[in-house]
Every structure is written in structure tokens, then in C-alpha cells.
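Key idea: predict the complex, not the pieces.
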Amino acid sequence: MAKNYYDLLGVSRDADEKQIRLAYRRLARKYHPDVNSGQDDTAERFKEVNEANEVLSNAESRKLYDRYGENWRQVQQHGRGAATSGRRAQYQGGGNPFGDVFGGGADIGSMFGNLFGAGRRGGGRQRQQRPAPLEQSVEITLDEAFKGTTRALQVTGQTVCTRCDGAGSVDGAACPECLSQGYSYQPVRGEVAIPAGVDNGSRVRVTPGGQQVVLIVQVQPHPKFQRKSADLYTEVSVPLYDVVLGTEVVVPTLTGQVALTLPPESQNGRVFRLGGQGMPKLGTPSERGTLYVTIKSELPTSLTDEERKLFEQLQGLRKDTGGQDDK
Ligand SMILES: [Zn+2]
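Result:
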């Protein structure tokens, strides 16, 4: 993280919350992967801009960042309730950058319940103060978004103090183990299920060891498919002769391949809709979007003399019949 967060957002050090929010929205739109599919450096910029915003939009983390610069996280980790193992894990008070800007991020929480095992929640007394949810980015492939996937997660979670059993005191005196808090912070590991159909900005909420964690999904660009919510877009190159004469085309899908009949004299750029071959819909994965296939006609290169002559013959024939030019 060599770059300064203020420079990344293009704001001055004394920018107010609103200026930061506006700068972030502008850049997030500019670099959002939906807009810039397949361009690696914009995906990287998108990540940087998000990171800068996450830190600067939160008064607490911004203060730490202003004071300690890029080492602020290490400083924060010595503090209470701080996160954790993931590089991007951090305290986050409020604000949902994806939800605010794009509005599409479904909040998926209770569907999964507590995948870390309910036993760790602890009952006991009322907690004095509940830590803010930790937000952590998780990057997955399009195939993983298609099938659903899991990620190992380790966070610093709250656990009930074993010395005082959550009471905060032992024999009438303050518990020396937890300093009267009733709970302590322990690393908690677990596996998080990320459901089929998630998209950029989808939020998966889990509660390992009583610590709320919100995973914000980012889906990596795919070399073959572009995605717009549940629909996928792809291109298939077909040799000129096959486009003219008609053929059967093999189209890649995320589950394999399907055959498509290309009628004779199809035009370059023709789009076929394959219903049900897109992404599964979040929450109802049996429903799937559409795969749009664009046919690209491959023009021949490095013609042999004979081929050139045949093309010239064709050209002559078209001229005689007045075919192509006067359309
Ligand atoms: Zn205790």
C-alpha cells in the first residue's frame, strides 16, 4: 500500500465526509468491474479506491490513519476489538459503500445462520458493548459465484470469559482474566458458505464467536464471460465460410458446452439468446439468467493464389447479379 489514500481518492487531507463520499462514488463508478470488464489495472484501482474509502469514510480509522499513516492497522490491532488475520479486515462503523452506490448488494445473512457453531455465542449476561461488525472483502471467481463456494475465515471473536463465566467478577471482585468485561477476544476460525448467484457487492453476514462479520463479495472478471446481474455475454468466432453456409457452433457455458445451429447467411454480430444458461439467481439458484452469444465472423488471412482467384470469381459473380453493393 504505497499510495496515499487521500491521493487515491483525489481529495485533500482536510476533505470533509461529503467530499470523500462524492470522490469515492465517482471513482467507484469509473473503475467498477461491471463497467470495466477484463481490464486488470482498473480492477486493481477499484480495490485501492475501495480500501481508501473504507478507511477514510470512518472517523475512527481515518484518525488512526492520519496519525500513523500506512501502519495504522498494526496500531489498531493492539486495541480492543480490532481485527484480525485478513489484510483487509478492519473495524468499520457505518456506511456501506457498495449498497449506497450500486444498490444491488443483497444482504444475505440469516439464510446461513451461524456456520461457526452456535455453541460459541455464549448466553450469560448482557454485554456492555457490542463491537461494530467487521467488514472484510472476499474475492471469488465467476465459477465460484456460479456454484457457490466456501472461504476459510479467521477473525478475533468475542468469547465468554472462562474464568468468571461471563459474570465479570469472581467472588465479588473484578475478574482478573477479562478485567470485568465478561468476555475476551480469541481468534475464531471457521468456514463461510458463499451462496450461488452472489455478485459484486453481495454481503454475506456471519457471526463467528459472537463477532459479527460482513463479507463483501467481489467477483473476478472472467476471460470468456461478461456478466450483468444474472445474464452472461460471450462471443464465438466462426470461420467466414461456416457463417455463410451455415453450421453447428459449440458455445461455452459455465457448465460445459452447448451446440447452436447457425443458419446459412447469418450476419456478423448476430446475437443468440440461450435462456437458462446464465448465472443462477441469488436465493433461487434453480432460476438462471440468459446467456447472450455474439457470433463473430473470422475473415480469412494469408490467402493462397487459388483462394484469391476463387474470391475474385465470387466477386465477379456478385457484380453480375448486382448482389452486394446496392443494398
Ligand atoms: Zn472474566
